[in-house]
Design brief:
Elements lengths: L19 H5 L1 E5 L10 E5 L4 E6 L12 E4 L1 E2 L2 E2 L14 E3 L4 E7 L4 E5 L4 E6 L1 H5 L2 H5 L8 E4 L2 H10 L1 E2 H7 L5
Antiparallel strand pairs: 1-2, 1-12, 2-3, 3-11, 4-8, 5-6, 7-10, 8-9, 10-11
Length: about 180
């Protein structure tokens, strides 16, 4: 007797499954970056020191519905051309906590910068955001991440310990963002 494994899965209710980032990354939050209210950044740390940069659900970006584009050209640095080679990640751009990864540019001419909020090396930016910027709004903690960064174990651990964890973040906003 053959058994079809797909029949054992209720494909209509997949809500109890965690996403990839929920399973393998610990989320940490930086609130009011550069003193700007609701300029909140989410850093997702993997155990291998890889960190994903994204906007926190409470970021003011999610309250504005205007059309926008994401510009990875920061001054004389084009983050889209960042190329990393080899085990040592040679060629990665060095980052400080205030390094701007990209700019969000609205059709009305207003802009804001997205800093990386940690010291490390830029491995790559999410090139899909340049083609499909709506991913940032629709899936900020998965396909809409902004960049992949790498730091030393000491810096990664130090940064994680200084930031709000997910439970503290939820308490801060009483579950409402």
């Amino acid at each position: 007797m053959e058994y079809d494994i797909l029949q054992s899965i209720n494909l209509e209710d997949l809500s109890h499954f965690k996403s990839f980032t929920d399973r393998y990354f610990s989320k940490r939050y930086v609130l009011n970056v550069n003193g700007i209210e609701n300029n909140d950044i989410m850093l997702m740390f993997h155990s291998n020191r890889i960190t994903l940069l994204s906007l926190a659900p409470s970021h003011f970006f999610f309250k504005k519905t205007d059309q926008y584009k994401i510009n990875f050209n920061i001054g004389n640095i084009d983050r889209l051309t960042n190329t990393v080679k080899g085990k040592g990640k040679k060629g990665g751009q060095m980052l400080t906590p205030n390094s701007v990864i990209c700019k969000i540019e609205y059709d009305d001419g207003t802009t804001f910068d997205i800093p990386c909020c940690m010291k490390g090396t830029l491995i790559e930016v999410n090139k899909e955001l340049a083609k499909n910027p709506e991913l940032l709004r629709e899936q900020p903690d998965s396909s809409g991440f902004i960049a992949i960064m790498l730091s030393s174990i000491a810096i990664s651990d130090s940064t994680k310990s200084e930031l709000l964890n997910h439970e503290e973040y939820v308490k801060t906003f009483n579950g409402c963002y």
